[in-house]
Design brief:
alpha/beta, TIM Barrel, 7 helices
């Protein structure tokens, strides 16, 4: 019996030494407890955590600014620049082959330099507005387009084509665009039209849209900026409160939608201007 007690005592001491050593290694940064989590669990915890330290970001009012070559009014602290419009055109010079083929890339060779002139200012919070799934250029390509059951491209009431979030080429193209825009130095990327067109959400569309957003968010972990989303009017479009809550950044909203999205303390999305 005494021998059993001695063995138990030695094991207890050994476990204490090992535990202490593990804590020291974590304190010194040699080990990270997150590395012991399953891969899927690490992703799920990493994505929402990004926004925690960024709640002190400038909250507006923001100025919509379409021409980065024009001087910003004195005293402006935050600007929203359109980098991908619903018609599919890009507000910068892209190197993506598809964007060049579709005529989506900006033809102004000085455009990127002008953008960097704004994003490099420490006194200015810069936000890149990106039309996510509404795209009239990429929407002409069947490998990305949202299609009707008949096989024709879905066209909404405004004559706008949309991209299908379940298609690999859609995710690839949008990830490339976001990566290029991020490299221009923006503080925040803001996805607009992150939904299905009204009345086009298929069965299982909400889950499909969340899977698309999650995958894009995982890609964004390597970008030096925040990934945010615009909360849009409710309808049969696949966008839910749960989807908005998955974003590591902030929820933005037009003035009319602020009361409905008040739980997210949304940032006001400025109306387009003619500058």
């Amino acid at each position: 019996m005494k021998e059993v007690k001695n063995i138990a005592f030695r094991l207890l001491c050994l476990s204490g030494v090992l535990a202490g050593g593990f804590l020291l290694l974590c304190t010194w940064g040699i080990l990270d407890p997150a590395d012991w989590q399953p891969e899927e669990e690490r992703v799920m915890t990493a994505v929402p955590a990004l926004g925690v330290a960024d709640q002190s970001l400038y909250a507006g009012p923001f100025l919509y600014w379409s021409d980065p070559s024009q001087p910003i009014p004195a005293g402006t602290k935050g600007v929203v620049l359109p980098m991908k419009a619903a018609d599919g055109t890009l507000g910068y010079v892209s190197r993506i082959p598809q964007a060049i083929d579709w005529g989506a890339s900006s033809g102004d060779p000085t455009r990127n330099q002008a953008i960097r002139g704004l994003t490099s200012r420490e006194d200015l919070h810069t936000v890149a507005l990106i039309s996510c799934l509404a795209d009239d250029r990429a929407g002409q390509d069947r490998d990305l387009a949202l299609l009707r059951a008949s096989g024709s491209a879905w066209v909404d009431g405004a004559g706008q084509t949309w991209l299908d979030p379940t298609k690999e080429d859609t995710l690839s193209y949008l990830a490339q665009v976001c990566r290029e825009v991020s490299a221009l130095g923006f503080d925040e990327l803001l996805l607009m039209g992150c939904r299905y067109p009204d009345g086009a959400c298929p069965e299982g569309g909400e889950a499909a849209l969340e899977t698309f957003c999650r995958t894009l968010q995982e890609t964004a972990l390597d970008w030096p900026c925040l990934l945010s989303v615009v909360g849009e009017p409710w309808g049969e479009n696949g966008q839910t409160d749960a989807l908005l809550a998955t974003f590591p950044g902030r929820v933005w909203a037009g003035k009319a939608d602020l009361p409905r999205l008040s739980a997210f303390d949304p940032v006001v999305l400025p109306a387009p201007s003619a500058n």
